[in-house]
Amino acid sequence: MKIKAKIPEKAKIVVKPGQKVDFTTPLAETTEKQMIYIPIAEMMGFDAKNIFHHLKQVIGDQIQKGDVLAENKSLFTTQQYLSEVSGILREIKHDTGIIAIEKEMNNNHVLNCFFIGEVSEVYDGYLELIVEDVHITKLQEEIPYFGASMYYIDPSGKYSDADLDGACVFAPEFDPMDTVKMETLGAQGLITKTKFPSETMIHQIVLEDEKDFAHVQKKEYPYVLIGHEPMTILFYK
C-alpha cells in the first residue's frame, strides 16, 4: 500500500527509493542563501542605462569567483570587473546600474523525515511511501502540513512527559488547561471531536465524520500525516 508525502521543492532530497525511513532519517538539505548587490555602473564609471552593453553575463548565469562580470572599453584601455563571489546572477537593474548575485552560504540545514515507511519513488515535490495499512479521511478545517507519531490518551487521562514529545495526541476531548502542558512537552497536534477555546498555538484537528474518529480510535494507528490532497488526513502503520 502506498501513500504520498510532500517534500521540500527547493532542497536537496537525500532519501532514495527502497530506503526505509523514520523520524531520525535525514530527508533534505537546504542551503542558506544571501543576495549580494553590486553597483557595477558606478564602480566602472558608465551610464546605468547602458548596463547591458557592458555586462558579460545574463540573468540565470552561474558565476564563479574571478569571472568577468563587465567591461568598459575606451579608446586606449579596457577596464574589467571580476566577480568577488560565486553564485547565480539573479537581477540586473538598468535604472540604477546595480546587479544582484545570489550566493550560497556554507551552513546547511538538515530536515528529518516526518513520516515512517519505505520510500517507493521520489518525484518533484512529493514522494511515495510503502506502508502496511492506511485510513484516509476528510478534515473539517485545513491544517498546516506535518506528520507525527500518535499518542492515544486512555480513559484515565494519564500520560508521561516522554509520551507527548513530537506526538499528535488523540482524545475525545481535552482540558484546555492541560493542553498548555502538552504544548510545553512538545505535542504537535490534538485530534479531538470538537474544537475548543485554547491559549496555545498547538493545532486542533477535527475529522469531518465522527465515524472516522471511532475507527481510528479502535485501530490505534501509530502514525499520522496531513494528506497530499487538500483537506485530508492519513492515519497509517
Automatic annotation (TrEMBL):
Name of the protein described by the UniProt record: RnfC Barrel sandwich hybrid domain-containing protein
Source organism per UniProt: Candidatus Roizmanbacteria bacterium CG_4_10_14_0_2_um_filter_39_13
Upper classification of the organism: Bacteria, Candidatus Roizmaniibacteriota
